[in-house]
C-alpha cells in the first residue's frame, strides 16, 4: 500500500511538471520503476499504460484552457504513434548506448537555444503564427515516438524544444499540443508492448497508482501553463532541458563520470544559472507586462486600441 501511495504522489508530481513544461512524466516515472528493480521493457510498458489515462486527462484540460493547436496534434501525433509502436516492439533487442548520448547532445543544443533566446529576448515573435510544416513535424514525431517507447520517456524532451526553437508556436500551445498528442503515442506504445511482451511484467496496480496521481494533476498543470508568462516559461523549459541532458551525457559511456564528485559542481552551476535566468525573465516581464515578447496577443490588442483612439 505504501508503494502505491508513493507511486500516486510521483504520478501527480510528474504530471504537474509534464503538463506545465511539456515533458518529464515518462522520464520521472520510468526512473523510479527502474530504481526499484523493474526491467526496462516492463517499466516503459507500465508507464505508457498509465499515460493513456493521464495524457487523455491532460489533453482535455489543455483543450478547455485553449492551449491546443489541433493541426499540430495531427501532424506530429500520427507519425509519433507509428514511431512509438515500432520502438515498443523492438525495445527488447535495441541497444540505445550509442543513440542516447547523440540524442542528448542534440537536445542540449536545442535547450541552450531555447534558454538563451527566451531569457534574453522573450518570445520569438518574428515567425509566430506561421504554420508548422508537415515535413518538419512528421519526422520529428516519428523520432520522438520511437525514443519515447524505447527510453520510457522522450516525447516531450524531443518534441517540445524542437517546436519551441522554431519560434512559430507560443509556449503554452506548444506544451498543450505536445501533451495532447502524447495520448496517441501512449496508446500505440502500449499496443506495441502487448505485441512484444504480452501482459507479462506489467504491474497494473502500479500503472493505476501513477494514473490516479496524473489525472489529479492534469487540470492544475493546464491552468498553470496558461497563466505563466511565456518568457518565464521558456527560461524554465530551457533550463530543464539543459539539466536533464547534461545529466544524460555525464552518465553515458562517452563520459562515464557518474561517480565523479565534479558532476555535482556542474549541476550546481546549471541550477544557479537556471534560477537566475527565471528570475531575470520574471523581472523583465513585470517591467513590460504588455511587451510583445511576453504577451503578443495582448500587445496587439493594446496597440490596436491606441491606434483607434489616437490615429495620429
TrEMBL record:
Origin superkingdom: Bacteria
Membrane association type: Multi-pass membrane protein
InterPro entries given in the database record: TM_pro_TauE-like, TSUP/Inactive_protease-like
Transmembrane segments: 72-91, 98-116, 136-159, 180-198, 204-225, 232-250, 262-282
Subcellular location: Cell membrane; Membrane
Chief location of this protein within or outside the cell: membrane
Keywords: Cell membrane, Membrane, Transmembrane, Transmembrane helix
Cleaved signal peptide residues: none
Family that this chain belongs to: Belongs to the 4-toluene sulfonate uptake permease (TSUP) (TC 2.A.102) family.
Protein name stated in the entry: Probable membrane transporter protein
Taxonomic source organism: Kineococcus gynurae
Amino acid at each position: 500500500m505504501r508503494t502505491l501511495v508513493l507511486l500516486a504522489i510521483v504520478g501527480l508530481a510528474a504530471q504537474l511538471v509534464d503538463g506545465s513544461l511539456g515533458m518529464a512524466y515518462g522520464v520521472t516515472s520510468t526512473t523510479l520503476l527502474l530504481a526499484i528493480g523493474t526491467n526496462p521493457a516492463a517499466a516503459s510498458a507500465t508507464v505508457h499504460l498509465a499515460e493513456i489515462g493521464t495524457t487523455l486527462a491532460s489533453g482535455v484540460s489543455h483543450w478547455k484552457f485553449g492551449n491546443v493547436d489541433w493541426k499540430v496534434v495531427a501532424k506530429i501525433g500520427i507519425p509519433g504513434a507509428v514511431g512509438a509502436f515500432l520502438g515498443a516492439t523492438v525495445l527488447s533487442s535495441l541497444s540505445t548506448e550509442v543513440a542516447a548520448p547523440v540524442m542528448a547532445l542534440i537536445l542540449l543544443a536545442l535547450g541552450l537555444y531555447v534558454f538563451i533566446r527566451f531569457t534574453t529576448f522573450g518570445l520569438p515573435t518574428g515567425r509566430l503564427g506561421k504554420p508548422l510544416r508537415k515535413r518538419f513535424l512528421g519526422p520529428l514525431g516519428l523520432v520522438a515516438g520511437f525514443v519515447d517507447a524505447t527510453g520510457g520517456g522522450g516525447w516531450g524532451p524531443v518534441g517540445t524544444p524542437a517546436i519551441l526553437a522554431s519560434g512559430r508556436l507560443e509556449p503554452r500551445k506548444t506544451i498543450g499540443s505536445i501533451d495532447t498528442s502524447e495520448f496517441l503515442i501512449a496508446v500505440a506504445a502500449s499496443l506495441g508492448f502487448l505485441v512484444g511482451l504480452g501482459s507479462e511484467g506489467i504491474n497494473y496496480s502500479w500503472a493505476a497508482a501513477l494514473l490516479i496521481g496524473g489525472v489529479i494533476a492534469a487540470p492544475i498543470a493546464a491552468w498553470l501553463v496558461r497563466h505563466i508568462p511565456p518568457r518565464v516559461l521558456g527560461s524554465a523549459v530551457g533550463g530543464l532541458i539543459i539539466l536533464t541532458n547534461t545529466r544524460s551525457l555525464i552518465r553515458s559511456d562517452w563520459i562515464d563520470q557518474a561517480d565523479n564528485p565534479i558532476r555535482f559542481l556542474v549541476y550546481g552551476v546549471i541550477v544557479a544559472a537556471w534560477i537566475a535566468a527565471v528570475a531575470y525573465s520574471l523581472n523583465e516581464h513585470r517591467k513590460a507586462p504588455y511587451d510583445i515578447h511576453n504577451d503578443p496577443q495582448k500587445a496587439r490588442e493594446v496597440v490596436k486600441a491606441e491606434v483607434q483612439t489616437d490615429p495620429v
